[in-house]
Design brief:
Number of strands: 9
Number of helices: 13
Structural class: alpha/beta
Radius of gyration: 21 Å
Helix content: 40-55%
Strand order of the largest sheet: 3-2-1-4-5-6
CATH superfamily of the largest domain: NAD(P)-binding Rossmann-like Domain
Largest sheet: 6 strands, parallel
Shape: globular
Length: about 300
């Protein structure tokens, strides 16, 4: 059933639906670069979705991309999601935004509700929120994703999952609509911790690729051939395979992950290392380089655009 104009005040032109047909939809807050295709995949698989974003353009895109047969309704009001949903996905950039949204949601969510934080949040904040919500009968689990925008579009994300068995089972049908592999990581907060450490390892690989390409260019080597050498040899990594030719050598710099978000994840990983009293010189180097890149390029630049700094 497509979105219609019955019984609902439209948020933006064309963004309406019959609320009685989607009682207890999946709430989805945060329709950004990754969140939008994730919500669309849920809707295309027959899951009723109540999308929420402060940007009305993203609300229109959700309805349009989901297609005429999807059960989709939208709202810019967080409290409406809490009042109408029992399960809510949060796909927000920072723990601060998660905290603000959860504080508003908690006032209207019913007892037994489940919150699924699929962003890259601070593990200690995730644990704090989960503990604060538990006395109110609300469960919070962390389910950050791994995979670029292209994998999000096709529902092929890897999803890390921290929390209770009951929360996982309740979330499973929705997570399977967005990802092809779900990995249990342990108690709540563990998925966010592993996600931050994973992103550090990816950043280290990207940094190595950028430095090597800079040296190869200065030495007058054929960069396309060098990319083939990396990907056929022991230097192969995700950055060399999925970013080097596609977004770095092409100069498009559209890898789909912003500098500011990577710097945030590196800081989370660095905080974990400090709390664990483990020396991490490679992590310290990555964090230093990303901070320099932030100063030079700004937080909204793509991580692949750091190539500009290494090719000067």
């Amino acid at each position: 059933m497509s979105a219609t104009t019955d019984d609902v005040t439209p948020v933006a032109q064309g963004v309406t639906s019959r609320p009685e047909t989607i009682a207890k939809p999946l709430g989805f807050i945060g329709l950004g670069t990754m969140g939008l295709p994730m919500a669309v995949n849920c809707a295309r698989q027959g899951i009723a979705v109540l999308g929420c974003d402060a940007d009305p353009t993203r609300l229109v895109m959700l309805v349009d991309d989901a297609g005429p047969d999807a059960l989709v309704h939208t709202t810019p009001v967080v409290s409406e999601v809490g009042a109408r949903c029992e399960i809510v996905v949060l796909m927000l950039p920072t723990s601060k935004q998660v905290d603000e949204v959860v504080s508003e949601l908690a006032e209207s969510l019913p007892v037994g509700a489940l919150l699924i934080d699929m962003g890259s949040s601070v593990p200690s904040e995730t644990c704090r929120l989960a503990a604060a919500l538990e006395p109110r009968g609300i469960t919070l689990i962390d389910a950050p994703v791994s995979g670029a925008v292209e994998r999000a579009r096709f529902g092929r994300l890897t999803i890390l999952l921290g929390g209770t068995d009951a929360g996982m089972e309740k979330a499973r049908i929705y997570l399977e609509a967005m990802g092809e592999r779900i990995i249990r990581t342990g108690p709540v907060g563990s998925a966010h911790a592993m996600k931050a450490l994973n992103n550090f390892v990816y950043a280290a690989g990207l940094l190595a690729v950028l430095e090597a390409v800079g040296v190869a260019a200065a030495a007058g080597l054929d960069l396309e051939v060098f990319a083939d050498v990396l990907n056929a040899s022991s230097g192969r990594n995700v950055a060399s395979e999925a970013k080097l030719k596609q977004f770095i050598l092409s100069g498009s710099y559209e890898g789909g992950f912003r500098l500011g978000l990577m710097a945030k994840d590196l800081q989370i990983a660095a905080n974990l290392a400090e709390e664990s009293r483990v020396e991490t010189p490679a992590l310290a180097t990555c964090l230093h380089v990303w901070r320099r890149a932030l100063d030079a390029l700004g937080p909204d630049a793509d991580n692949t655009e750091m190539h500009r700094l290494f090719s000067r």
